Amino acid sequence: MNAPSIIPAVPAVRSAEERVGRLDWPALAAELDGHGCAVLSKLLTPAECAAIAALYPQEAHFRSHVHMARHGFGQGEYRYFRYPLPDLVGGMRTALYPHLAPIANAWNGRMGEATRYPAEHAAFLTLCREAGQTRPTPLLLQYGAGDFNCLHQDLYGDLAFPIQVAILLSEPGRDFTGGEFVLTEQRPRMQSRAEVVPLRQGDAVAFAVHNRPVQGSRGPYRVNLRHGVSRLRSGQRHTVGIIFHDAR
Question: Relative to the CA of 18, which of 43, 121, 142, 232 has its CA 20 to 30 Å away?
Fold first, then answer.
């Protein structure tokens, strides 16, 4: 039996590349540098959001199902996609990566890290496989009233790409209330800084997975970030997470 493809279909990639290429990447890079996150407005249409959210009960698309409360992660649940990824998810993963890799490389340079990331996602996935990280990490999350996601970092092995993307598939105020995306940043010898990111349906947030550099009076220094979702007050919320490294 042939192994499932980890490379998305060419038409899906081209469509995503056209859409992603229209974004103002210099401004987004400045937001990521300044705040550790940036909003990619209207990345998906409402119809595309609904189509991805509708995959959640279809087990054939997923490799595992996690109930957060069983592991102390919060309340709610999520499923990791299996390869091959749905065309839209795989296309976005492939199209977003080349715009984020230069930012990631600049961050590593400023933090004194030797790791550099290749220009194309396929080459980076080859490095993941060589490191024994072969399981896909894009995931679909589902929250109901009272659910939340504890502050955490999505690190699945020794090789981790330092930026990831989450796309909100539901409409705040109509489909759910509460459930804000939250990012916290811990700087040395300082109290944590919190960032609440407002999103609408189809908006994405790109954010630091683990560390990022901040310019201080004596040069750049490293800060530590975690992300989560605040308690849902009502309704149901779906999000697709695009993580660029694979897991062991």
Answer: 142
> What DSSP string runs through 18-79?
HHHHTS-HHHHHHHHHHHSEEEETT-S-HHHHHHHHTTTT-GGGEEEEEEHHHHTSEESEEE
Taking the CB of residue 52, how many other CB atoms lie within 10 A of it?
19
Give the Cβ contact number of residue 89 at 10 Å: 25
In terms of DSSP bridges, do strands 176-178 and 232-242 run parallel, antiparallel, or are they unpaired?
antiparallel
Whole-number Å distance between alpha carbons of 180 and 100: 24
For residue 1, pLDDT beyond 80: no
Q: Tokens for 116?
A: 């550099």
**pLDDT above 70 covers what percent of the chain?**
98
Is the pTM for the entire model greater than 0.85?
yes
pLDDT of residue 4: 62
